[in-house]
Write a structure and sequence with these properties.
The chain is of the alpha/beta class. Helix 4 runs parallel beside helix 5 and helix 7 packs across helix 9. Strand 6, helix 5 and strand 7 form a beta-alpha-beta unit. It has ten helices and 17 strands.
Length: 331
Amino acid sequence: MASSQTFGLDKIIERFELEVLNQGKNFERCQIRKNEINRPALQILGFFEYFDPTRLQLIGKVEWTYLSNQSEEERRKCFDAFFAYPIPALILTRNLEPFPELMEMAKKHQRTILRSKEATSLLLPNLTDVLKAKLTPRITRHGVLVDVSGEGVFIMGESGVGKSETAVELLKRGHRLVADDAVEIRHIGTRLVGSAPELIRHYIELRGIGIVDVQQLFGMSSVREEKNLDLVVNLEPWNDNTFYDRMGTNEEYTTILDMKIPSITIPVKPGRNLAIIIEVAAMNNRHKRMGYNAAQEFTKQLDAHFEQMMINSQMDSADDYDEYEELTAED
């Protein structure tokens, strides 16, 4: 199952150098759980339907200007209603001066108030990117993730089937390692992004040799920090009683974090060069994503060929029948 992620408010304050104007309830233990940020324009107007108070709140120049044109009593009423919700924190951008009514209601409801020197247009996207990276759903799967010609290939299979050995062969052919043994997969938007845990990053295990530092052995260009998952390759021992797709017309998918990723199954037996097969599979997968499917094109050609053969056969039969009619007419 995907793990539920949190990110400490104290880490956000440290990373973005935010000034603490007021410490709210549970300030030191506050954990952010949502990666979206809300600008409370409608809430300032008193509309709280569909309001998510678990998000960080951010007030910029637009909201501040509107509030500055309101009376003290209107601002006090507005912030009293707003801070009644258990928001994790409110951030003021552009080093804006907080209204006395804002600070009064923040202390009344024990809400955290922060301030940034950055402009809203700079702070908002940067803060959103950090929260998405830290709070996105993630899962750890056993396998090897390799960047093969720009395609993120996730190699899966039973222990000892040859995943790491295949990865080393791919490295020798100029491709790059992302993670070996344990792959951390995050669901970001419409993508699945894989990376290695910090402790084992750039390392690979080879039975009979031990732990190998890929970056030191093959160079900086042989590794990368993360990569999208574009194709799942399942390695399994060859079984003579199993039917393996030889045309490639059957579309298979592996579901990870509720996303379907194209997958193929490659049977392993002595003499098969798995690295080259995976290399071709990665390039073929890219062609499919760009709209060209070799298996479908081949099937269309076969259908057209057999259709033409049937037409020719029918025409030959018709010619034979006409010739027979002529001969019987002469008799």
